Amino acid sequence: MTDLLLDPAIRTWVFLPIVVITFFIGILRHYVSLLLMNKKKVELENIADGQYLLRARLLRENGRFLPKTSFNARRQYLCAEETGYLSRAQQRPAKGPNPMDPSQMTEMLKGNMMNMIPMIVVGGWINWTFSGFVTTRVPFPLTLKFKAMLQRGVDLVSLDSAWVSSASWYFLCMFGLRSIYTLVLGSENAADQSKAMEDQMSMTGSAVNPQADPRAAFKGEWEALQMIQHQFAL
Amino acid sequence: MVETDWTQVSYDEGRQTLKKWRECGVRRSEEVVEIWEHVISRSPSSLGDEEWAVVEQVCIASLDSARVDLAQECIDLLHNQFPHSNRVLKLKAMQLEATEHYQKALEIYERLVEEDPNNNSYRKRKVAVLLAQGKRLDAIRAINDYLKIFLNDPEAWLQLSELFLLENDVPKAVHCLEECVLIQPLNSMYFRRLADLRYTQGGADNVELARAYYERALKINPTDLRSQYGILLSNNQIAASTKNATEKKRAGLAAVDAIDNLVNRYQKISPKSNPESDGILNCLEAMKVTIGSK
């Protein structure tokens, strides 16, 4: 089979522009999100909650180094019926993030917009402008299964699956630029779309957010601390 | 050991050393100032982004070594770069502290705490001001308030235990050190101090506890001479006071073992480096004879 020869104009007007556009959109995303996002405020009470939970765990793990009286005093302090921090924390009214709270809603909306709008607009635009080009090829042979991934928008049965179409090249760039963003913007950047998508996935996957419902965590710690048998280790 | 002359190190070495000390929290303030003045300050801008962290480090070090002039330079540098930073404001307050303007410093810290209640370093500085003024009881109160929120901070617990010791309140100091042990169970110093306090409290139970803690401390840090002495003393005490014959014998043997270990340690070091080691050796041998005779 004779090798496919690509027009050099494709390199100049399709291949490189896609890389540059994806890169600058990432940078833009970073700065816009800096502009829109206000820093998450952590309430002092939440910090104290976390500290008390950590403390209960430490007491369970390292309590064996203390004499029995000291251990029981601390357990009493945390778990006592009326006055213990863990027991009181369980009876606190649930706060949690209220989905109907307008400030929370705008926050969520902002997050979603930051993710969705560039995805739809830029992806659509790239698809529309650069559709139908074969831009490059990966330097190793691939099986037919990869055709769907690498040749989006170019449905040619006879084309070798190592060739990459323009739309697929855009996606490859989008996910592959993470380390370059880290280089340019530092490690805490918001330019990377793939990370944002991971966040979204994990949000739907598991709702175990430390701030989601502290009462359940407190209850768990309270029970564990009640169960434990003290044994002096030394 | 050869003392390094910190005024003569190369630029890169100075930079590495500062970085190491900054990250490990080493308090070698005079050396830091020396490195800065003789090496790094030749061209601070070639540090890149690290420059500001270094300047902050030098600023604190110069306050620590009573170089208020240098601290002022550093603060000016940082202020020009970050005009609205709370971190720079904190340095200014620390400078006020160093020049004994405690009230003003305290006011700044109050404001910083109000602005950012989650940052524990401002609260800790407030306690430091009270300590510097010698207001021990106020400091105890302040640390207590602090520990109601950040109750897993071993530094604060340790400080509190020292304050209680100054007030001769041994049981409360014990409580604080037990917290430290809970938080960092692999730190031999906490165990040793706890054992010291238990031994001080006296009574058969407490001395036994002290012995257990000394053994633990020695296990974590086998070179801990003080724990070895502690084992000797607590075993000696137990051997002298217990009624149980086997227990008496066992404690006596353990005390003799401890003496042997100590003698070993002292024989290894040359008498030149510690002129008192001969006297200590004689003393230990004499003690061994008395314990052995019982």
TrEMBL record, chain A:
Chief location of this protein within or outside the cell: membrane
Membrane among keywords: yes
The protein's name in its UniProt record: ER membrane protein complex subunit 3
Membrane listed as a keyword: yes
Key words, A-Z: Membrane, Transmembrane, Transmembrane helix
Record-stated family: Belongs to the EMC3 family.
GO CC term, one of those recorded: EMC complex
SMART domains: DUF106
Domain of life: Eukaryota
Automatic annotation (TrEMBL), chain B:
Membrane-protein topology: Peripheral membrane protein
TPR repeats: 86-119, 154-187
SUPFAM superfamilies listed in its UniProt record: TPR-like
Alphabetized InterPro entries for the sequence: EMC2-like, TPR-like_helical_dom_sf, TPR_EMC2, TPR_rpt
One Pfam assignment: TPR_EMC2
Primary location group: endoplasmic reticulum
Keyword field: Endoplasmic reticulum, Membrane, Repeat, TPR repeat
Signal sequence residues: none
Gene3D superfamilies from the UniProt entry: Tetratricopeptide repeat domain
A GO cellular component entry from the record: EMC complex
Domain EMC2 TPR-like: 80-195
Compartment annotation: Endoplasmic reticulum membrane
Family: Belongs to the EMC2 family.
Function: Part of the endoplasmic reticulum membrane protein complex (EMC) that enables the energy-independent insertion into endoplasmic reticulum membranes of newly synthesized membrane proteins.
Subunit details: Component of the ER membrane protein complex (EMC).
Listed name of the protein: ER membrane protein complex subunit 2
